[in-house]
Amino acid sequence: MARIRLDHIRHAYTPELAKANNYALREVDTAFEDGGAYALLGPSGCGKTTLLNIISGLLTPSEGHVRFDDKDVTMLSPEARNIAQVFQFPVIYDTMTVRENLAFPLKNRKVPAAEIKTRVADMLRRIGLEAKADRKARGLTADEKQKISLGRGLVRSDVNAILFDEPLTVIDPHMKWQLRSELKQLHREFQMTMVYVTHDQTEALTFADKVVVMYAGEVVQIGTPEELFERPQHTFVGYFIGSPGMNVLPCKLEGDDAIVSGNRVTIPTGHSGYHSSQKIELGIRPEFVSLVPRGQGIPIQVEKVEDIGSEKIVRARMGEHRLSAIVAEDKEIPAEADAAFAADRLNLYADSWLVERG
Amino acid sequence: MEKTWNNKAWLFVLPVLVLVAFSAVIPLMTVVNYSVQDSFGNNQFFWYGADWFREVLTSERFHDSLIRNLIFSGTILAIEVPLGILVALAMPKKGIWVPVCLVLMALPLLIPWNVVGTIWQVFARTDIGLLGYTVDALGINYNYVQNPIDAWVTVIVMDVWHWTSLVVLLCYAGLVSIPDAYYQAAKIDGASRWAVFRYIQLPKMGRVLLIAVLLRFMDSFMIYTEPFVVTGGGPGNSTTFLSIDLVKLAIGQFNLGEAAAMSIIYFLIILVLSWIFYTVMTNVGTDKPVKGEGE
User: Fold this and answer.
1) Which of A58, B131, B150, B292 fits as disulfide partner to A53, beta carbons 3.0 to 4.6 Å?
2) Handedness of CA B141, B143, B148, B153 (dihedral sign)
3) Cβ(A309)–Cβ(A329) under 8 Å?
4) Which residue among A58, A95, A152 places its CB closest to the CB of B184?
5) Per-residue pLDDT tens digits for B204-248
């Protein structure tokens, strides 16, 4: 088990791409604490799998260093780093039984036979595959296979970290929840550093203590699910986390007020550290937008109401901008309404980055 | 559930039935017809029962060609399959050399069989052939026209040259279809090169390997053109395989009844052996049914 330190990592897949300044990972400088459960969240192509492969050692970064505790492992092979990885598609050894699959990494490391036996038996019990221990692994279902790949990692009790690369992609929806909670359970038991790559926000938010949101080759925010929801550091985080995402409204500032499509909005005071030449935007979660009678807020035109059962999502137009609001299921949507914002939930963005309050 | 009966369906399968009838069933039945009759010319045929079959099965000549053919097929399988796997493993998986290798590998397969025979017949001659001359010059007494062992070596090397590519291409197709994640997982699990081959590459190649073995077995068991062009079945009868023997019997001696009986036996041997290969290879590594486990 180890603390993973990513020291100014940059990666381009070929030297030509690096020369053209076309980096798959622009710059990542962060650390994953020992025993933490982290999720790397971002859209396809944001560099999250690249980063994971750099941690596991399947890729060597173009620049920067990877450290496990104080040891520089940048040039070490995956085997020498002593990590485990679970891939998108279950990787199992077809011709072996479940038991042999679990014993394989131990056998390769010349662990004594008696110890292999007890450890494998223990792991079979933990992943709930005791009944199928002597079956050929190839006949199992996708979620069972994925448990085997996970077990192959966990069976080596001394692994530094266990890495997941979108492990639930091929799992049936009703099994996803179960597998994810079993994963959390295993994390609590083993207290290992776990890094979990996904593009599904629900997966990331339920699995991880800390979510690392990536966008275009960079880490844009590391935070607890709550922090990501309430104080998105970047408009992308606001848009990516939450359903529907945060409303981002271009505006102009006049004193302590913001002018959004001709309407004055009072914002919390104390913003500093931005420049008026920057692109200024106002961010507000749909959860904190309410509908009020005409004349009491900013005029909007309601375009569509989506009833998702537990609540209603109102899609509206405010001047030239789109606005979403979430209202209670039992509330009537008036034909003519204004929108009101919960003032303390307003976030101000300059060039897409959050402006901190004094 | 009630099944819908529609006799129109017969109309749709009719073209295939006619085609198969003309291409396979009718010729085969003609052979069956010959195999139970004897003829003394003038288109007069007499009922002969199963006597031709008895004669073929007890004939020493048939036994000898059969054994020669089994040894030949066994030898070329033992060489071509491991060699094909090795070459496929050594081939590049990406880059500009892939198409180059693939074309080079496919070349021998594109040459007509009798041309392959002619190439090797000349290539192996000690007076003007590069191979024969070189071997002779090295002080090895080599003459495929007179020495049965030399003739065998020549025919086998020729077949390996001609057909290993097929095994290579099939294995290569199996290899490139393995996702990278398998190799990455093996690396993380600390697997040795041998373990990667044994537990990832070989199982993933299993399907195509089965096809390769079946094709090479059937083809080699029916081999005719190449050894016929190179050695003509000689020296003596030393490279007379079943098909060469069959042609000698049918065309050379015009013994249609016995040749027909031999054809049928020949056909059945290939069918049975192919079926055994298929059954054995598809059952290797599958789950044996466990009692009391219903799935």
Assistant:
1) A58
2) positive
3) yes
4) A58
5) 888 888 889 989 998 898 888 888 888 887 788 888 888 888 888
pLDDT at B216: 92
* The predicted structure's pLDDT at residue A299: 85
Q: How far is A138 from chain B (nearest CA, A)?
A: 9
Q: What angle do CA B265, B269, B270 make, to 5 degrees?
A: 120
List the single residue in B with minimal CA-CA distance to A103: B189
Say if strands B37-39 and A337-341 run parallel, antiparallel, or are unpaired. Answer: unpaired
Number of domains in chain A: 2
Domain residue spans of chain B: 20-281
Nearest by CB to residue B199, choosing from A88, A95, A109, is A95
- Rounded CA-CA distance B235/B217 in Å is 24
CATH code reported for the domain at B20-281: 1.10.3720.10
Per-residue pLDDT tens for A230-263? Answer: 889 899 998 888 888 899 888 888 877 888 877 8
Please check whether residues A255 and A226 belong to one and the same domain.
no
DSSP state letters, B169-219:
HHHHHHHHTS-HHHHHHHHHTT--HHHHIIIIIHHHHHHHHHHHHHHHHHH
Virtual torsion, Cα B124, B129, B133, B135, nearest 10 deg: -30
Share of chain A above pLDDT 70, in %: 99
Same domain, A23 and A163: yes
CA dihedral B108, B114, B115, B116 (to 10 degrees): 40
Record the tokens describing residue B152, joined without a space.
């065998």
How close is the nearest chain A Cα to the Cα of B187, in Å? Answer: 6
Q: Using an 8 Å Cβ cutoff, are B168 and B91 in contact?
A: yes
User: Using the beta-carbon criterion (under 8 Å), do A85 and B188 form an inter-chain contact?
Assistant: yes
- B226, with CB counted inside 10 A (0-12, 13-18, 19+), is buried
Residue owning tokens 């042999």:
A100
Q: Are residues A137 and A30 in the same domain?
A: yes
Instruction: Kindly give the pairing relationship between strand A37-41 and strand A210-215.
Output: parallel
Kindly state the tokens that stand for A121. 């038996």
> How far does B191 lie from chain A, in Å, by closest CA?
6
Residue A271 and residue A126 in one domain: no
Domain assignment of residue A230, given as a range: 4-236
Separation of alpha carbons B219 and B164, rounded Å: 12
In a domain? residue A241: no
Q: Are residues A255 and A220 located together in one domain of the fold? A: no
Q: How many residues does chain B have?
A: 295
Rounded distance between C-alpha atoms, residue B146 and residue B148, angstroms: 6
- pLDDT reported for residue B291: 40
The verdict on A270 and A206 lying in the same domain is no
Q: Does B2 contact chain A (CB < 8 Å)?
A: no
* pLDDT (mean) for A329-356: 83
**Owner of token pair 């780093």:** A81
Most confident of A296-305, B14-23, B73-82, B247-256: B73-82
Query: d(Cα A149, Cα A127) in Å, to the nearest integer?
Result: 11
User: b or e along A188-210 (b: 16 or more beta carbons within 10 Å of the residue's beta carbon)?
Assistant: eebebbbbbbbbebebbbebbeb
Distance CA(A202)–CA(A209), nearest Å, equals: 13
In the predicted model, what is the mean pLDDT of residues B25-38? 85
Closest-CA residue of chain B to A57: B188
Q: Which residue of B182, B189, B197 is the best one to mutate when testing the A interface, meaning the one whose CB has the most A CBs within 10 A?
A: B189
Q: Are residues A190 and A269 in the same domain?
A: no
A89 to chain B: nearest residue by CA? Answer: B181
